[in-house]
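Schema walkthrough. Field components (list of strings):
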Amino acid sequence: AQSVTQLGSHVSVSEGALVLLRCNYSSSVPPYLFWYVQYPNQGLQLLLKYTSAATLVKGINGFEAEFKKSETSFHLTKPSAHMSDAAEYFCAVSRGGSYIPTFGRGTSLIVHP
Amino acid sequence: DGGITQSPKYLFRKEGQNVTLSCEQNLNHDAMYWYRQDPGQGLRLIYYSQIVNDFQKGDIAEGYSVSREKKESFPLTVTSAQKNPTAFYLCASSIEAGGLNEQFFGPGTRLTVL
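Field assembly_structure (string):
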C-alpha cells in the first residue's frame, strides 16, 4: 500500500518569504509523485511531477520540489511567496501500472501582505 | 480548447432524491475518476473507469453509482442511500489510469442537501 502525509494543514507566510510545504510518502516500490494546486471553488491543477528522471523538479509559477529517497520526502518550495500563491496544495503518490494515485489531505497556504 | 467540464456548478437536493452530476472531457483520455472533497479530508476516490463500459469502486463507493457508455462522459449519480452527500465533487481524467500520468480536473460541482 502507498500513502502520503502532508505535515501541517495550514502554513502561513509573509509575502516575499520562502514557501515550504512538506510531503512524505510511503511506498514499497519506486514512486511517482505529484503536487497539485487548488484555488477556491476550483478543480486541481498540476504544479509538477517526479517520474525518476531528475530528483529536483521545476514546476509552474516558480515552484520546485526535490525527491529525497533517504527521507521519503517530496517537499514543495518557492523562494518568494506572492499573494496569488494562496491556495490549497495537494501531494499525491502513484506507481507503475494502473495504480490509482493516493492524495494527501492537503495544506492550505496563507500569504500575508 | 480541450478540457473537462462539470455541470452544474451548484446543485441542491432534497433528502431522498437521486441526483446526477455530469462530467464530460474532450481530451481523448481513457481513464476517468470521481472524487469527493470534504474540508480537511483531501480527495477521496468514489469510482474510476479505465475504459469505456468498465468501472471500479473506489474507497467510498457506497451510495453512488456511475456509468461509462461513452469515452467522453462519466456521470455520477448520488443516490438516496448516501447518508451525507453534501460535499464538493471533482471529476478528473488521465490518458491512462495511474502510473506517471497526471490527472486533469474539472471545476467541480458543489452539492448541498436541503
